[in-house]
Structure formats: C-alpha cells, structure tokens
Amino acid sequence: MKPLEIWICFLFGLFFTQGAWALEPSEVLVIANLNAAKSQGLAKYYMAQRKIPLQNLVLIWMTDKETCTRFEYEAKAIPPIRRFLDANPQIRAMVTLFGVPLKIRGPGNLPEETQQMVRLNTRKTAIEKQLNTTASLDPLKRQAIQTSLAQAKENIRRFKISLDKNASFDSELSLVKQETYGLNSWQPNPFYLGFKDQLTKISKSKVMMTSRLDGPSAKIVRRIIDDSIEAEREGISGTAYFDARWKDPGEKKLSGYAFYDRSIHTAAQFHSTLLPVVLNDTQDLFQPGDCPNAVLYCGWYSLAKYIDAFQWAKGSVGYHIASSEAVTLRRKDSQVWCKRMLDNGIAATIGPTGEPYVQAFPVPEIFFNFLTEGYLTLAESYMVSLPFLSWKMVLIGDPLYRMNIKGHTK
After folding, report:
1. Confidence band (pLDDT; 50, 70, 90) for 136?
2. Residues 20 and 122 in one domain
3. Which is nearest to 16 in space by CA: 376, 373, 404?
4. Average pLDDT of 271-287?
5. CA atoms lying within 13 Å on the CB side of residue 88
6. Does 131 score more than 80 pLDDT?
C-alpha cells in the first residue's frame, strides 16, 4: 500500500465522521448576502449546478464591502448560520458567495493588553538609554546590554503577533459552532495532519470546512463554477509548476521558510508520476510565458506582484506563498496573486487576507497530493493541510471540486 493510501485509510476514521467517503452536495451549506447584488443569484446557480438542496441556503444581511467589523459578524452572520447548523447536523462544509465580506476587522486591544505593550516599550526604551550612555563600558558589558535590547525587541514583536485579532471571514466561520475561544492570533486546526499526535484546544466536532466562491466579478465566479464541474467531468491534463527557492535539502529537520520550500520539492516529486512537472529551484521566479497549460502551481516569493507566467488550464489549482495575496479580490488595480490568478482563469486558489506568517499556509505536499489523488474534494484537501483556524487564510473555489487527472487511476 502506498503512503498516501495509508493516510487515506487513516482519514476515513479521523475525518469522515458522517460515514461518507467524500463531501456530498447535501452536506454543503451555501451562504449569500441579501445586501449584495448578484450574491443570491450566484448562490442559487451554484446550488442548481451541484444539485445542493435549496433549503441549504442561508441568506444574511450585512455590509457588501470586503471588510466587516467583528460586531457585525457576531450580530448578523453567526446567529442565522448557527440556527441552521443546529437544525441540520449533516452539514460538514460551508461556502460563502460573492458579496459576503472577505475579512473581519478585530475588535481592538483590551486595557490590560495596552498596558502590557506600554510596559514592554518602556523596558526597551530604558535599555536603549542605558546603551547610549555607556560608551565607556568594556565590550563584554556592552554586548550584554545589546543582547538585552534584542530580546526586548523580540518580546515586543511576539506580543504584537499575539494581539492580532483580524481574520478572514471564512477562517473565523470554520469555528461558528464553537461558542467561545480566544480571538488573539490563531487556533490550531485539529484536522491538520501535522498535529496528528498533539492535543488541540478545539474539538473536531466544532470545526466546519469552509471555502468561498468569489472573485473580481460575478462573471468570474460563474466561470469558476462551470470550469470546476466541466474539469471534474471531462478530466484535466497539463503541467504542474513548482517554484522553490533553493535546492532540495534532503531529510533534514526544517522549520519556517525552509520547511515549506522542501515541501514544494516533495510535492513536485510526488506529481512526477501523475503529470509533466517543471520544478524551478533557483532564486528567479517563473517569468512571463514560462508556464503554458498550467494545471497546478505552488511557489514564492513576489509580494503582491503577480507575474503573468501562466496559461491556466480549465480546472487548474494553485497558490503563491506570500503575505498579502488575498487582501482584496475586487480592487481593480490590485496585483495580488489570488485576484490576478482568478482574472486569468484559475479554478481555485488560496491566500491570506493579512500577514499570516509562513507557518500558517497549507502545506503544499499535503494539499496537492490529496487533491490530485482524487479521493478528497478541494475543501477536504485544504482542511487536512491547513495548520490554523480563526486566522488569515481563505480558500477560493468550489468546495465539492474533485480533481480528475486524465489517465490517472486511483
């Protein structure tokens, strides 16, 4: 039995608590915004194409802007969605439609958090003053003060991260069944395979899969729906493009950027038996015209500056690992990768709505390997590869999409 097949057997017991093998249309809740033109119409179009029961539609009334407040999310989105989920326990996934906010603005700092920040800054200022007035100190004492200053700055950096209460709408929505949890920073995802041996604060029973059918225009959303269904039915062929930064480091224990870079290498190796693969392991990114008939893509790092290297095949899936690639899906002049990939024909992509830090991205080898095997849907492949919830990441695409690579037998 291949390693991926072993994981799939493991997931059968871990993930599919409703007894289903893969996500079914009847298990999807569709959410549209009554206050946004074309949102409800697109929702009903999607439901008709995927044969999702019409009663699986929840209509909310909130801002049609890309950002909503935490208060509006809690007052206008949570109550109707929770009521529906309480009455329909078979629901395993939710998809938000064009017009539903993309981001939730945090509620601000508590008084004690503000006070702690003041204390940390006061400490840093005192060390800086000491350093500036001790020019005559011997080098060892001066080095000790410099070390203390570096630690003070690091403490401030870490505390600022812990104070971040902003989130993507969908990532927050994945915990809609959880009554209370901390809003500061993120919550570990109990379905992430990298946490398989660790206890997480949130129970699996409280987590919902989420994705979004969204983009720069309603026309593009309809194209995503149609392309996903056609590619699933007819099969897809093309080339997988993986853009690493460095050579494969081998079996070293890695973290941060190096961990994700190796994961790109591992995904490329796995897919070499399924598809033609192009792996770029130099500092240069793929350049315009380099990537015809692209089926898959994962790479980095061109921050908020899309490089038009790709001709996207129908049903293609890809994402760029950088800090702000889904801060907007609508702003016309934006060059963030998610928006521009959707403009140019990709069927599904992933990105952060704010600074997520690299460890928050879906792990490439997990996401793409499960997706292309065809056992799991797009939403399921995303869920098992995503480290954190109540955070910044968003999946844009049909949650029911199952990639069907021509010539590949499961």
Report:
1. low
2. no
3. 376
4. 95
5. 21
6. no
**Whether residues 340 and 392 fall in one domain:** yes
Tell how strand 28-33 and strand 57-60 pair up. parallel
Domain coverage including residue 117: 111-162
Q: How far apart (Å, rounded) are the C-alpha atoms in residues 285 and 298?
A: 11
Judged by DSSP in three states, 337 sits in: helix
Length of the chain: 410
Do 37 and 10 touch, CB atoms closer than 8 A? no
Identify whether the C-beta of residue 236 lies closer than 8 Å to the C-beta of residue 314. yes
What distance, in Å, lies between the first and last C-alpha atoms of the chain?
12
Q: Which residues contact 321 (CB under 8 A, 6 or more apart)?
A: 260, 298, 299, 300, 301, 358, 361
Of the candidates 392, 296, 396, 400, the residue with the CA atom closest to the CA atom of residue 339: 396
Tokens of 27: 């298990």
Q: Are residues 150 and 210 in the same domain?
A: no
| Helix (H), strand (E) at residue 159 | helix 139-162
Asked if residue 294 and residue 395 are part of one domain, the reply reads yes
Q: Which residue has the tokens 């070499």?
A: 272
Burial class of residue 147 (count of CB atoms within 10 Å of its CB; 0-12, 13-18, 19+): exposed
Give the DSSP H or E segment for 310: strand 310-320
Which residues, 6 or more positions from 247, have their beta carbon under 8 angstroms from its beta carbon? 281
Work out the pLDDT band at 6, boundaries 50, 70, 90: very low
Last residue of a domain, one of 99, 133, 162: 162
The three-class DSSP label of residue 158 is: helix
Distance from C-alpha of 385 to C-alpha of 108, rounded to nearest angstrom? 30
User: Which of 162, 192, 227 is the C-terminal boundary of a domain?
Assistant: 162
- CA distances (Å), origin 241, targets 272, 317, 320, 391: 11, 11, 11, 28
The mean pLDDT of the chain is 91
On whether both 122 and 185 belong to a single domain, the answer is: no
Task: Looking at the structure, tell me whether residues 130 and 7 fall in a common domain.
Answer: no
Structure tokens at 3: 């390693």
Q: 226 and 245 in one domain? A: yes
Nearest to 116 by CA among 156, 165, 161, 164: 156
pLDDT, position 16: 46
> What one-character DSSP code corresponds to residue 77?
I
362 near 371, Cβ under 8 Å?
no
Taking alpha carbons only, the member of 285, 277, 289, 291 closest to residue 243 is 285
pLDDT beyond 90 at 110: no
Q: Name the pTM for this structure.
A: 0.89
Q: Are residues 15 and 119 in the same domain?
A: no
- Structural domain count of the chain: 2
